[in-house]
Design brief:
Strand content: 15-25%
Helix content: 25-40%
Largest sheet: 7 strands, mixed
Mean pLDDT: 83
Number of helices: 49
Length: about 1550
Amino acid sequence: MASASLKISTAEEAVARIAYLSSDVIVSVQPALGADSRFSSHLHRYASRADASLVAAIESKVPEIQTVRHNVDPLLSVFAPIRNGKLVSVTTSSSILIPSVPHLYRLANFPVVIHVSLQPSNYPDYSSITSIRNSGFTFLQSETLQEAQDIALTAHALAIKSGKGVIHFFHAGSSAQDHQIVFEDVDVVRDILGLNAVIEFQNAQIGGTSIYADDGRVATITEPSNAPVPGAMEGVEATVPTPIEPNGTASLSKTSSVGSSSSPRESSVDGKASVSSATTVEAANVRAVTSNDIYSFVTDIWAQLRQRVGRHYTPFEYSGPSNAENALFIFGTDVGTFAEAIDAAKPTDIFAKVGVITARLYRPWLGAKLIETIPKSIKRLAVLEQIRRKTTKWGPLLLDLLTTLKSSPGGGVETIVGHQLGYISPDTVQQALRGVLQNLRSEKPIQNLELGNAEGRTVPKSSPLVQPKVESAYMKILDQIFGSRLFLANAINSQNAGVSDTVATNPEFGFGSLLARKEHRQRFVGEVKKASISKEFITEAPKSWLAKWVSNADEEKSSEIAEEVLARLQTDGSPLSQTLLSKKGLFMKESQWLVGSDAWAYDLANSGVHHVIASGENVNMLIIDSTPYSERAVADSARRKKDIGLYAMNYGNAYVASVAVYSSYTQVLEAMIEADQFNGPSVVVAYLPYFKEGDSPLTVLQETKKAVDLGYWPLYRWDPSNEEKGEPKFSLDSERIKNELSAFLARDNHLTQLMKRHPEFSSNLAEDYGTEVRTLQKRKAKDAYNQLLEGMAGAPLTILFGSDNGNGESLAKRLGNRGKARGLKTLVMAMEDYPLEDLASEENIVVLTSVAGQGEFPQNARAFWDAIKDNTDLDLANVNFSVFGLGDSHYWPRREDKHYYNKPAKDLDRILGNLGGKRLANIGLGDDQDPDGYQTGYQNWEPLIWQALGVDKVEGLPEEPTITNEDIKLASNYLRGTIMEGLNDTTTGAISAPDQQLTKFHGTYMQDDRDLRDERKAQGLEPAYSFMIRCRLPGGISTPKQWIQMDDISNAFGNETMKLTTRQTFQFHGVVKGKLKPAMQAINKALMTTIAACGDVNRNVMCSSLPTAAQYQKEVWHYSKVISDHLLPSTTAYHEIWLKDENDKKTQIAGDAIQDFEPLYGPTYLPRKFKITIAIPPHNDTDVYAHDIGLIAIKGKDGHLTGFNLLAGGGMGVTHNNKKTYPRTGSMLGYVAKEHVHIACEKVMLVQRDHGDRKNRKHARLKYTMDDMGVEVFKGKVEDIWGEKFQKAKSFKFQSNIDTFGWQKDEHGLNHFTFFIENGRVEDTADFPMKTGLREIAKVVDGEFRLTGNQHLIISNVTDKQLPKIKKIMSDYKLDNVQFSGLRLSSSACVAFPTCGLAMAESERYLPELITKLEGVIEENGMRQDSIVMRMTGCPNGCARPWLAEVAFVGKAYGAYNMYLGGGYHGQRLNKLYRSSIKEDEILEIMKPLLKRYSLERQEGERFGDFCIRIDMIKETTEGKTFHDDVAEEESDEE
């Protein structure tokens, strides 16, 4: 782990190091998952360095560290690993011990080690130890720093040798002032542990399925039959030897023997006879481990320690004169303090020559060894016990000593006096000693005197129970739904009359408090009933309302009536009214809830959960399960967690729901409301997975999605009361496992049948089912292909590929086709699909791999690489191989990173060679920076393969057809393709590759959820395919009714969210194929369409939102609609495919196209996408320079629109490190009158149609056409086919390209509010129910909804009359908050992960986190209100138009971004590369000082992008063609 020259300064570190070296699994008990303990901070550091354990039986040698909160029954995590042959240790504070007593008794006969730091840390209570002394564990105590190290090692070695559990306890404060000690000697640790015994234990599994299966378990020992059976050691709690029956009935499960290298005996934790290597079965004697055995083992261990390191330990330690008559037996923290005072005593002091005794081995209590340890001269013994909680009058240690010394022969101790030891300050130690000795030597000593302050230095405080922050989501939803009606019976930090938090938060306590509360309210109902006929009221009004309330007291209606009752009681004013008003809270019908964690899911039959369900009481339980899906196998098998939902459904009387807020917020609301309305027990099991409390929402989201998608956490609701209504009891709200779960519900004995018949439902999966599926698939696929090749001639050639972006796969398949044409028997497979056991038998194998991340293998190649990189068994002497790599030398600009270039290919070539393989050809390396990209290197490498295989001279090879997008469009019959057939194919969630290109023209992209890719692949499932749908919405304006319809569509067909895009339209994600057509029809019913929202056509036309100039904006917006309609495709394919009714007739809602030809586009449409936008100066809020056509509205002297300046050739798409691709701002062609603008746009588009590059899609946008032609030549071609000339451009001025937030009035007095919708995502969360709030506004507002080009939203045309109502809704739903930093308000991000197939890094989900980390420096430097345009995209295609931002981050690999600086604040200037492939820490290192410098050095009115150029941080980009010139970090071609 670390060199011996380093030092240890704390007892926890010394213990943690020994535990790490000596364990397979360490259960780290912590106050909270995100808050380290004094142990865990060290453990996690060792694990992060991949330090090796001496015993961990896995390849990495790194022990598993399981982090468990201290209040969730942590010792449950020990059972599964210890039964499965893993050595387990626990690091914990003493606070868990007493609540864990039932587990301690069961674990005592397993070789588990529990290291206990005594609490409270300022002055601990040793009653935590004495209270569990009879649990069967061996107890060892250490006092100094050096002892902590040595006794920790003793504990592990003793557990291994004895087969019994060991608790090592200590108080870290006692050694806080000790000198540092050196690190442990690993060789000493290895020898003392005895690795042979370790291996023997690990190779056997004890088994067992429940923590109750081993109640009769006994740790045993095997020895020759002629060996004497030792009797019990004299003293308290000596273990009586237990004879073991031949059939092993004393133990209910089997384990291995574990032996001592220095003892002729072998100990075992097996109930059956173990066979010593020196005996036969007939000669073996198996018996229980006794106290004497423990003594033998521990003294052997200490003898080894003494021999190796020179330190001496005994079960009891005595220090002092050999002829002392008085002694102190101290069980507490002040041993050193007392000893120092005694050593410094004057001869005349009463406490001079007093001996001190401590227990090193506290249990088993070896009374005979104590008698041997203390001098015969001792006559009087004072017992000092640091015990705060005594269960008997006498202290436990005093009782031990009385039994040992008073009843044993030869004991000379005449007087034993007990004292309760409290905190004694150093300056009063002598006084305390004097008092103890005076009492001890008196004729009638007083028992149980208290010494010092029993409460320690201050009032002790244990680690408080806290609700993990992430779990507060469900609390907030409860509060949102029920408000003042909500009552949490076992809420943390509630006032419970002195009851501890630990007790108050358990289900039993909560249930009891609810029953008491129910009785209290029933008494109150009786009082009200009596009052309703009373004559004590001043007025008569209260009586009738009180009577009405009584008749509805148990109904929800009572809360409504309560408002009327309270009003009349307040008016009445009589003493009786005042009495009732003092209890006004009881008038409300509460929604009563018990809230707990998944710790309640253990031992259901004996827990409070069972009692609540079985009671039939009207109680709601919310149980939050926080186990991440990624840790399910370890966590669930380890803790034997039950499914509370299924358990509750078996009762038949309970409402049950399974919910996940990060999957379906709506379903959570439905479930909680239904649970509240159900008359009986309700159980809502809620999923909120996290690894630590500080986890980002992104981590929780990803884990939730995996769990729900793969059926680990199905979403459902079960309402038994529906049966009476004739409605189904069960509703499945997630896609997976519907059939199986329905079958489960139809059976009797649901839970048992489910676990037996469908083990995939069980959260206790013992094996990785998905891995088995994948292995079987690999084998079957390869065997089937081999059968096809049997009859073919020619040499075999296996081609494997690793590819994330498709290039490697395409190249491998092309190589395979070429090999077939040359007569070879070729097989092409992804590396992950290849059965590794066949590798050594291959004749010829070729591997092509690209690079992922930081020189890593692509996802579909990692398993292959992991299997061979350290493999020493493979012999490839008969295998011929070659490797080709696809990489980018510019990807790694820093010299120290150059080795990452094509690293997977280089590593693979090296390993295959090291395993004996012979190279067909030397490694080939393709570089994206070469003239033809990776093809340059590939064209040199491929001929060498054919030459080596002797097929290079083959003639008459056919030309390879390549199908391009142009071919697909031409063959599509005007965008029909086989889309309709693909939609009807229910065998897959996907559609064909050509149809994927065609559906873009219809406004939808096929995607898959990249958060789920790996897990679904492991389960043998196809990717989680779904579709994104984008609406066509010119100018971004919709009615309130349309907004509600879009909201409904997102809930019914999508993922319950809407994305407001940077092109001012709605986008829906997560629409599965079966819902695609209904979703399209619903959009059309809303009088919207999706045609031409994507694809090689003119897409959605944008327009400035400009709320303050209503009339002018309306005039300009009109032309966005005119242009959009004019440039629409004419094909009727859209209506045929999407808008047919059940009778197969066209249902034309939003159009009446009948033509089957394209007068504008032709059969191949445009070379690439085409985008048009309109900006209204002074606001460039649509980034007018970034589009193929940018129209700048020009206002006449009369204040009305006259026409537009027309820019052409803008575009954002780029390919990383390909300098032939670049962003470009539009070039001014001139002015066009408004009446002709749609024709001018058409003619620009037609020149692009006819002259754009249709061979290279990366060079197909209008920007490249214009640069290739020259602006004037292009302009001339437009004018030629138009027959008109552009006029001279009119003057204009832009001042910003961001939105203005908050309320504004227009010239008509109407109101407009711009909402901040971060990155355009409209959704509900527990903290912010935005989506619901906007829907509520849409229900009542008479105006319109405007989507902005910056992904925000404006409610427009709100009358003053409606204003109070709208403001009230906004306030209720927190929608009126626009008090964000200027940086956040000016930010924008694309979708990226998880749905965008092009994304290389996070964007929408990460940018808010990055901004949060920068806002500190923004605030510190007084720039909170300052606008700085920051944008982020997950790839270089530029959907969020990053190249125009003042600062931009463009994804290059997961977690890595290119950083750009110097864009124009008005969107008029491109930025430039500043740093390449940097991660968050580097981003913050650059941005924080730069922002501070900007605040100090900027000139008046100077924008951030301009500042970066002025201080020479970055060079100005003058045009697109110079985008790659003069970058701040020049990329080198050196490898």
